[in-house]
Automatic annotation (TrEMBL):
Organism from which the protein derives: Azospirillum palustre
Protein name in the entry: MarR family transcriptional regulator
Coiled coil: none
Record domain HTH arsR-type: where: 35-110
One matching Pfam family: HVO_A0114
MF GO annotations: DNA-binding transcription factor activity
């Protein structure tokens, strides 16, 4: 299992263009699938939609847009980032959230799911 540090380094390399966007990520471990699907609460889906449509410059601004407390939003974003759905980009003293996942495909028969990344330039 990769560490958050490894994921951060990979995301930074993709953002700089020194590494290609990773392929679709499949999650097959039942516990990981449950964790990923458990993140898709209405409140977290709202955060992801606001990130995609409003492109907030800071986590604080996202919290304002979502009408949620900033620490609550920060915790949710950390969980979403851990599962590869969002990226948290340090921008000076602040952190800017970016949507990474375009969609999540769930195969109910096989019990797995795939996180499909955003296509760069298609936002």
């Amino acid at each position: 299992m990769r560490t958050l540090h490894d994921l951060r380094d990979e995301m930074l390399a993709v953002a700089r263009g020194t590494r290609p966007v990773p392929p679709v990520q499949s999650v097959t471990d039942g516990e990981a699938v449950s964790g990923l699907l458990g993140l898709l609460t209405p409140a977290n889906r709202t955060l992801m939609q606001l990130i995609a449509t409003e492109r907030p410059e800071t986590v604080s601004r996202l919290a304002q847009l979502a009408n949620r407390a900033q620490p609550n939003v920060s915790r949710a974003l950390q969980d979403l980032a851990k599962h590869g759905l969002v990226r948290l980009v340090r921008d000076g003293m602040s952190i800017r959230p970016e949507l990474v996942a375009a969609e999540i495909d769930v195969d109910l028969v096989c019990g797995d799911c795939r996180v499909v990344p955003m296509v760069v330039g298609a936002e």
